């Protein structure tokens, strides 16, 4: 089981990324703080909470909103409860994302944030829709909805993948695959990958 801090849970901790789940339980006394380096914040569930980010000229406030991506850089965040359900966020520190030499990649439906050492993009695939054969490098996948996909790998190997909403997964290997959404609902995920 990953280590748990008050209001935080480590989901991924490797040479490439560090991902910290942020959920503030009701009745947790006072704000919770944590420092970070080379980080971004991803909203996982809507809520009334927010994080105050210190690290620039003046503090700024980031709401907890599903699908929102904010570049934080270096600094400290203070997690504050709202007047209801806090929501859920993910603090992602970019360490050294591996490159995928020799493959051209498709960066999903929309690039949300791109810097020299990483790219954050979203993948949205409707029910029964297919994303034709494409490539990914090593990447962090953040599931904003429940996923049920049927993958076809090179060589026609088939693989079924199911993930619950809120799952965060580090995929260490490059992959070439075709994806079909086998669910009755669209799936939505965000991906952090080397550009």
* Overall radius of gyration: 17 Å
Which structural class is indicated by helix and strand composition?
mainly beta
Runs with pLDDT <50, length 5+? Answer: none
Strand content: over 45%
Element order: H for helix, E for strand: EEEEEEEEEEEEEEEEE
Total domains, how many?
Answer: 2
Give the name of the CATH architecture of the largest domain: Sandwich
Give the helix tally.
0
Q: What do we call the CATH topology of the largest domain?
A: Jelly Rolls
Q: What characterizes the major β-sheet?
A: 8 strands, antiparallel
**Under the CATH scheme, which class of the largest domain?**
Mainly Beta
Portion of residues within helices: under 10%
Strand order of the largest sheet: 1-2-3-8-4-7-5-6
* End-to-end gap: 31 Å
Overall 3D form: globular
**Global mean pLDDT:** 89
Q: Total strand count, please?
A: 17
CATH homologous superfamily annotation of the largest domain = Jelly Rolls
Describe the secondary-structure layout:
Blueprint: E1 4-5, E2 8-13, E3 17-22, E4 32-45, E5 50-54, E6 60-63, E7 69-80, E8 88-94, E9 110-115, E10 118-125, E11 130-136, E12 139-143, E13 147-153, E14 158-163, E15 168-171, E16 175-181, E17 187-193
Antiparallel strand pairs: 1-2, 2-3, 3-8, 4-7, 4-8, 5-6, 5-7, 9-10, 10-17, 11-16, 12-15, 12-17, 13-14, 13-16
């Amino acid at each position: 089981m990953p280590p748990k801090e008050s209001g935080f849970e480590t989901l991924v901790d490797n040479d490439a990324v560090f991902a910290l789940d942020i959920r503030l339980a009701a009745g947790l006394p006072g704000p919770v703080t944590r420092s970070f380096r080379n980080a971004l914040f991803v909203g996982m569930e809507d809520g009334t909470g927010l994080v105050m980010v210190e690290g620039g000229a003046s503090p700024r406030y980031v709401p907890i909103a599903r699908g929102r991506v904010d570049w934080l850089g270096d600094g400290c965040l203070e997690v504050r409860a709202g007047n209801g359900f806090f929501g859920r966020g993910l603090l992602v520190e970019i360490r050294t994302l591996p490159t995928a030499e020799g493959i051209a990649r498709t960066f999903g439906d929309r690039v949300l944030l791109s810097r020299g050492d990483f790219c954050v993009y979203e993948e949205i695939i409707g029910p029964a829709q297919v994303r034709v054969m494409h490539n990914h490098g090593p990447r962090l996948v953040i599931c904003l909805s429940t996923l049920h996909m049927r993958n076809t790998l090179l060589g026609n190997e088939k693989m079924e993948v199911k993930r619950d909403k809120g799952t965060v997964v580090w995929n260490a290997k490059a992959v070439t695959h075709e994806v079909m959404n086998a669910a009755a609902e669209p799936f939505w995920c965000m991906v952090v990958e080397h550009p």
